[in-house]
Specification:
The structure holds 2 protein chains of 2 kinds. By secondary structure, chain A is mainly beta. In chain A, about 0% of the residues lie in helices and about 55% in strands. In chain A, strands 2, 4, 5, 9, 10 and 11 form a 6-stranded mixed beta sheet that branches. Chain A starts with a strand and ends with a strand. By secondary structure, chain B is mainly β. In chain B, β9 and β10 form a beta hairpin. The chains are: A mainly beta, B mainly beta. At the A-B interface, β4 and β5 of A face β5 and β10 of B.
């Protein structure tokens, strides 16, 4: 079945440094790849997404890159701040299908 | 835009009682809503997909008679946990897919259920 791997499971960075989280997927038909940020006790919040016809997308300090050939996509956060500390989930979906989520990455930004 | 609300945010109930959780899309129409369950330090587990005006589709292993889902309008879906037991204690999160935004799902803030 469909599977999404996510690495690392935990990540600690110093404030101001960059953080990179990588996900790999198995379904070659996947064409939509969102990233969600979940703070403790809250629901996931969509922070960026990318579709398969695009290789990279950027929104201020956040960027996502997609390599369809290798079936992996990555979240890049630059100039990290303490408020970036949260659990980040990647997901993949084929058009109209349900999401398959990765297991999550706990990011800690140390002041 | 794209705000999803859930009510209540947390609920404590006695074993054997039923609990209803509401999920609303506040500023968009959602033809499809999803219900997830999340255990501590784990990822989201899809329980069921609910389409407006039709029966919900449940994932394998999820009891449809225990987790009743009603999607009565384009902005409201409800999840009722019937005859709740302590093992049903969890964080329940809904999401809604914007009718106009294809695949994108927007999540509610979640409901913490504790069954004593």
């Amino acid at each position: 079945g469909e599977n999404v791997e996510q690495h690392p499971s935990t990540l600690s960075v110093q404030e101001g440094d960059s953080a990179v989280i990588k996900c790999t997927y198995s379904d070659s038909a996947s064409n939509y790849f969102p990233w969600y940020k979940q703070e403790l006790g809250k629901g996931p919040q969509l922070i960026i997404d990318i579709r398969s016809n695009v290789g990279e997308k950027k929104d201020q300090r956040i960027a996502v890159t997609l390599n369809k050939t290798a079936k992996h996509f990555s979240l890049h956060i630059t100039e990290t701040q303490p408020e970036d500390s949260a659990v980040y989930f990647c997901a993949e979906a084929d058009y109209g299908q349900n999401f398959v989520f990765g297991p999550g990455t706990r990011l800690s930004v140390l002041p | 835009g794209a705000v999803v609300s859930q009510h209540p945010s947390r609920v404590i109930c006695k074993s054997g009682t039923s609990v209803k959780i509401e999920c609303r899309s506040l500023d968009f129409q959602a033809t499809t809503m999803f219900w997830y369950r999340q255990f501590p330090k784990q990822s989201l587990m899809l329980m069921a997909t609910s389409n407006e005006g039709s029966k919900a589709t449940y994932e394998q292993g999820v009891e449809k008679d225990k987790f009743l889902i009603n999607h009565a309008s384009l902005t409201l879906s409800t999840l009722t946990v019937t005859s709740a037991h302590p093992e049903d204690s969890s964080f329940y999160i809904c999401s809604a897919r914007d009718r106009l935004a294809k695949e994108t799902q927007y999540f509610g803030p979640g409901t913490r259920l504790l069954v004593l």
